[in-house]
Automatic annotation (TrEMBL):
Organism: Adhaeribacter aerolatus
GO molecular function: oxidoreductase activity
Pfam families, sorted: NmrA
Lineage of the organism: Bacteria, Pseudomonadati, Bacteroidota, Cytophagia, Cytophagales
Domain NmrA-like: 1-226
Name assigned to this protein: NmrA-like domain-containing protein
Cross-referenced PANTHER family: CIPA-LIKE, PUTATIVE (AFU_ORTHOLOGUE AFUA_1G12460)-RELATED, NMRA-LIKE FAMILY PROTEIN
Length: 303
């Protein structure tokens, strides 16, 4: 029997990939979108066979109607407090009203459970939402996946292609985990269709240290890469404070200092997974960093 899965945030990058993975696995997919959502995006979903409800997403009764008969509600919402806290509170409360048994929140991040409060704004919001859902009468499953591997060639300043350097704060042998958004979507879709999942699931497409990146980039490009070590974690913490003071950008999702907070958390060693659930769904083909970079034609970036 087909599973009915509700997706909030289906028009976004990760949300769209989750929708595709659900459809591939035979799910009945229902997307909840805002009244102001672009019609072209809605049409694109409907062409795939997705049922789309364009509603007032601040209304618990309206969302609950859309969730009726669903097996799981998946949130792929992205934003700050009004989204991660306010919108997700409404979403989970509506799911409960509709007697949906399972909920997957929009976490998809490093394991923030061992981080100190006040050190990473975006992850603090997710931790605050977790406090809200702890005692709710619905089974919640968080998916921790480390940083998005896709960011290695876009917004994450770890690989400095032009300078042939790997940026390293602190210990160059500190392990870091990465997962492609495609793999995250594939895993999330199967977790959503799974009748029983634990509170937390941990996945990683690959795990490397800064020294590993030096060796890998040297191998793949034929050019000698080296470490760039401006200083330790304490210096990075100081730079985060300075950057945040002079350029607060409070309403931006990823201001410069937010990216620096993620780098600090990755390289400080507090977020390394103690176990992995990659084998839970055996049909997923995991992409490692080497294959990802090859597919991205990284040689073009160093010329």
């Amino acid at each position: 029997m087909s599973k009915k899965i509700i997706v909030a945030g289906a028009t976004g990058n990760l949300g769209g990939k989750i929708v595709n993975a659900l459809l591939k696995n035979g799910a009945e997919v229902v997307a909840i979108t805002r009244l102001k959502t672009d019609k072209n995006k809605i049409n694109a979903l409907e062409k795939k066979g997705v049922t789309v409800f364009q509603i007032d997403t601040s209304s618990i009764p309206e969302i609950a109607k859309c969730c009726k008969g669903a097996d799981c509600v998946v949130s792929a919402l992205s934003g700050l407090r009004e989204t991660i806290i306010d919108a997700q509170k409404i979403l989970v409360d509506a799911a409960i009203r509709a007697n949906v048994k399972r909920f997957i929140p929009s976490d998809y991040a490093i394991d923030f459970t061992n981080l100190m409060e006040g050190q990473n704004r975006n992850l603090d919001l997710r931790r605050e939402f977790h406090k809200y859902i702890e005692d709710k009468p619905i089974n919640v499953t968080t998916i921790f996946n480390g940083p998005f591997m896709d960011l290695l060639t876009t917004d994450m300043p770890l690989i400095l292609f032009k300078h042939k350097r790997i940026l390293c704060w602190g210990n160059p042998n500190q392990m870091m985990e990465f997962t492609t958004t495609k793999n995250i979507a594939d895993f999330t879709a199967q977790a959503a269709m799974d009748e029983e999942t634990p509170r937390n699931l941990y996945i990683a497409g690959d795990k490397l240290t800064c020294n590993d990146f030096v060796e890998l980039l040297t191998k793949l490009t034929g050019k000698k890469f080296k470490l760039l070590k401006p200083g330790g974690i304490s210096l990075l913490n100081f730079l985060i404070k300075v950057t945040r003071f002079f350029s607060p950008s409070k309403n931006d999702l990823y201001p410069a200092w937010q990216g620096m907070q993620y780098m600090r958390d990755m390289m400080e060693g507090r977020v390394v997974f103690q176990k992995y659930d990659n084998e839970r769904y055996s049909n997923i083909k995991w992409t490692n960093v080497e294959n990802f970079l090859i597919n991205e034609n990284i040689k073009l970036r160093i010329n």
